[in-house]
Amino acid sequence: MLGRQLCDVSGLVALVTGAGGGAQGGLGAQIARVLAQAGAQVAVNDLDAAAAEATAEEIRAQGGVAEAFPADVADSQQADQLVARVIERFGKIDVLVHKAEYHSRAHRPDQIPLEEWQRSVAVNVHAPFYLSRAAVRDMRKRKFGRIIFVSSIAAIRTSVLHGVPYVTTKEALYGFTRHLATEVAQHGITVNAILPGFIVTPKLAAHWPQERIEKLGPTIPALRAGTPEEVASLVVYLASPEAGYLTGAAIPIDGAVSIVPGGRMDPENCWV
C-alpha cells in the first residue's frame, strides 16, 4: 500500500510576503498560488492592499483557501501585527515565505539616495528578521516550522543588473539564513534561502522587451530562463515535512549560472 503523497502541505498555514498582483504578479504571487494548490492555507501579504486581494481572490476562485493581509513588513510594529493577525485568523503559522524585496533604482554608490539605501536594508534585511522573530514564537510551541527566504543569486554572485544596495542586502540575508538555522533547528524549525536567477514572471514580462528576454535566455548554461512554477515547486518542497533535515541552505535555482567560472550578469543581455 502506498503512503501519503510526497510534499503534501495540506493543513499547513503559510504566510507569503510580497505576493500581490494576482495573475500579473511576480514570484510571490506564484508561490502563494502553488502552495494553495498543494493544500496550504495561504495568508497573502503585500504593501498594496488591492494587489494582495487580487492574489487571494484568484486562489479562492480556484478552490483554495487564502486571505489578504496588507502590511509594510519593513515596519517592526506592522510585521508583528501581521503575524498576530494571521495566527488569529488561522490559528497558527507553519510556513513563512519572505519574498517582499526592494530594488534601488540607482546602481552607482555615489548616486544612490540615502532613502533608497535605507529602504533596501529595511525590506531586504530588517523585514525577514522582524517576521522570523514573530513567527518563531509560534512555531517553537508546536516543534514545527519552515522559514523560506526568496533571495537571489546576487547573494553569491555579483550582478550589475541590481547594484550595490540589492547585492549587499541579499548577501546579508544569506548570512542571516545560515545563523538563524542553527538557532532554531532544535525546535523542529528549518530555515533556507532560495536564490533565483533569471526567472520570467508575468510582472517581468510586462516591463522587459520580449527581444531582450529572448536574447538573454540562450546565454544561460541551461539555454533558457526559469519559470515561476519551478521556483514555487521548490518552495513547496522546503515547506513540506520531507524537508525536515534540510536547513541552513542557500539553493541556487538559476540554470547553472552561479557556477560558471568568472563572470557576472551584463545588463545588455549576456553573462560575461
Give the topology.
Layout: E1 13-16, H1 27-37, E2 41-44, H2 49-61, E3 65-68, H3 76-90, E4 95-98, H4 114-142, E5 145-150, H5 164-184, E6 189-196, H6 202-207, H7 210-216, H8 228-239, E7 250-253
Parallel strand pairs: 1-2, 1-4, 2-3, 4-5, 5-6, 6-7
Multimeric state? single chain
Helix/strand/pairing category: alpha/beta
Shape: globular
What is the average of the pLDDT values?
90
Q: SSE order in H/E notation?
A: EHEHEHEHEHEHHHE
Q: What would you report as the Rg, rounded to the nearest angstrom?
A: 18 Å
CATH class: Alpha Beta
Q: What fold name stands as the CATH topology?
A: Rossmann fold
N-to-C CA distance: 52 Å
**Biggest sheet strand line-up:** 3-2-1-4-5-6-7
* Residue windows where pLDDT falls under 50 for at least 5 positions: 263-272
Overall CATH architecture: 3-Layer(aba) Sandwich
Strand portion: 5-15%
Classified in CATH, the superfamily is NAD(P)-binding Rossmann-like Domain
* Share of helical residues: 40-55%
Strand count, sense and closure of the main sheet?
A: 7 strands, parallel
Number of beta-strand segments: 7
Q: Number of DSSP helices?
A: 8
Task: Please characterize this protein's 3D structure.
By secondary structure, the chain is α/β, with parallel strands linked by helices. The protein has one domain: Rossmann fold (3-Layer(aba) Sandwich). The chain has 8 helices and 7 strands. The C terminus is likely disordered.
Keywords:
272 residues, alpha/beta, Rossmann fold, 8 helices, 7 strands, globular, disordered C terminus
